[in-house]
Amino acid sequence: MSTRNGETAAPDEATTDVAYEPVDFWSAFKRAHEVVRARVIADTAEAAGLSEPDLTILANLNKAGGSLRQSELAASLGWDRTRISHQLTRMGKRGLVTRERAGGVTVTLTDTGRAAITAVQPGLDTAVRRHLTDKLSAQEIETLSSLFRRL
Prior knowledge:
This protein is mostly helical. It has seven helices and three strands. About 15% of the residues are buried. The model is unreliable at about 1-15 (pLDDT under 50).
């Protein structure tokens, strides 16, 4: 990254004089997302025989203690009802999750689903570090986390 005077800025220095066009900024965000996503998934989910959506759902359910209402799970992922329903049907057929109706639908990890996320978690942590967080300063991580929560 270069500053106005041609010097190279340190990775954790803020450069406020760079103005991005909205579409350029969006394109850079999309590219970073796709590159990191593809690398993390290649390192973890594919090796474990899981799809990216499988991994995403299993990780969210595990973080929530093993079960969530389907509507809460969909909202936490930013997915619509149809997408989450179809994905959960596929995962249910493979024995990764169950769904129970009782004043709404509750999605629960099965023993197979819990074993799958437990087995993949160390590799997932390593891949996220390697392809994302190790490339950022602590301040950049905090800033991005704050911004992502706002979006």
